[in-house]
Amino acid sequence: xxxxxxARRLGTTSANVSKWVRGEGVPSYGICVSLLxxxxxxxxxxxxxxxxxxxxxxxxxxxxxGRPA
Length: 69
Fold this sequence. Notes:
Layout: H1 3-10, H2 14-22, H3 29-37, H4 42-46, H5 53-66
Helix pairs in contact: 1-2
């Protein structure tokens, strides 16, 4: 998927996606949740080892708490 398609699916602009890719900005919490739901790994998104089970659990708990009722 290219940056334009990703931006469309996330409801943002391709300029924002480009900034994230270049490391000139960071996505919001909501965008991070969307990226994880789309299949991006925590390691890809946050740059941490996927072997950290406690981190894994805490991220998914935060995602669950952030879901609208």
